[in-house]
Design a protein that fits this description.
Structural class: alpha/beta
Number of helices: 7
Order of helices and strands: EHEEHHHHEEHEEEH
Radius of gyration: 20 Å
Helix content: 25-40%
Distance between the termini: 44 Å
Strand order of the largest sheet: 3-8-7-6-5-4
Strand content: 15-25%
Number of strands: 8
Length: 215
């Protein structure tokens, strides 16, 4: 059974489908998860969404909330099998309740490792991003290029937008381009390999930014 998700970090879609499959008692070995490539219109608001949740009542009574929170990090990992391991673990937590106390289980250990890898990548990105000030059409904008290991651009972009005192900025990554104008966080497609800046001059940065949909 092929289960498509709308994008690589579709945690809400995953939890919705996982809840449905659990309710229908669909075994993990019969399920193949696929995620569409990351895409979005030329520019769209990036809205904060509620945390994902397991809606199946029986599953919710068995699955620890800590596992649900961990799954929100795991989907940001680039491992192509992350959704398969998550659903297999959810299934086993429902049908093998004692699993929640087994800290040596291979599937759960793998998920913890993926979640920890994402946490490290987030902290590294937060500490290593370097913004340069540029003037675009008379407006001051801080610009940054960063290539994260995992799909964390939107997570870090949301954190940046919540920082007090930070003015307008643009964050460019291979997965997403993000722009904060001081009031609203906007997203656009990431940069293609031939567009990705490495050691651009300030003038080259300005030429690149002027081609983005926000300017």
């Amino acid at each position: 059974m092929l289960i498509p998700l709308s994008h690589p970090v579709d945690i809400h879609g995953f939890h919705h489908e996982a809840t449905r499959l659990l309710g229908q008692q669909v075994a993990p070995h019969t399920v193949q998860w696929t995620a569409a490539p990351a895409c979005c219109p030329d520019a769209e608001p990036l809205l904060e969404t509620a945390n994902a949740s397991i809606r199946n009542r029986a599953a919710r009574a068995i699955i620890p909330q800590s596992f649900v929170r961990m799954s929100e990090l795991v989907v940001l990992h680039r491992d192509p099998l992350r959704f398969d391991v998550l659903y297999r673990s959810l299934w086993r937590l429902v049908y093998e309740p004692e699993l929640r106390h087994d800290f040596g289980d291979a599937d759960l250990a793998r998920l913890r490792q993926m979640a920890q890898s994402v946490r490290r990548d987030v902290q590294k990105m937060k500490s290593r991003m370097e913004f340069i000030p540029v003037q675009l059409k008379g407006n001051a904008v801080d610009a940054c290029w960063y290539e994260p290991t995992h799909f964390i651009a939107e997570l870090v972009g949301g954190w940046l937008a919540r920082q007090d005192g930070r003015g307008a900025w643009v964050l460019l990554t291979p997965d997403r381009s993000l722009h904060w104008d001081g009031a609203q966080l906007m997203a656009a497609p990431g940069l293609a390999p031939e567009q990705q800046p490495r050691a651009l001059s300030r003038d080259q940065w300005m030429a690149l930014l002027e081609n983005l949909p926000w300017f």
